[in-house]
Amino acid sequence: MKPNAITIHQSIFINRSREEVWDFTQNYENRCKWDTSIVEAKVLQAAPQRIIRLKTKGNNLMTFIYKLDDRPSKTTLAAKEITSSYIESGGGSWTYENLNNGTLWTQTNTLVFKNKFWLRLLIPLYKLILNNQAKKAMRRAKKLIEQT
What we know:
Number of helices: 3
Radius of gyration: 15 Å
CATH architecture: 2-Layer Sandwich
Structural class: alpha+beta
Shape: globular
Strand order of the largest sheet: 1-7-6-5-4-3-2
Distance between the termini: 40 Å
């Protein structure tokens, strides 16, 4: 892995079917309800591959281009067209596995930071912050999904 990249890996059990978890977490109308790092999400294209434009806290803009969209099992995407003072590229994969009459939802996300000295110094802090954000977001999603 590049020295200026971080990968976040988080999993959570949700007491609902894979289809229910997938439908909620992959519906970008819901995204701002459970992921506070997302300010705005706009679906640019639904088919043949999904393309989503996101605005995040810190005024970062990026376009998610889905490479795999296998409901209810797995997604894989790449972040493109990034407007950010510190993010160079990124991508991720989310999986949804049957477990004990529920779903184990796992996120694996990678961000590559611009190759600037001061950013390399901050990578451990960014990793901690992004890990905590992902964990909190997944807990909020779990709560909302299990309430329905």
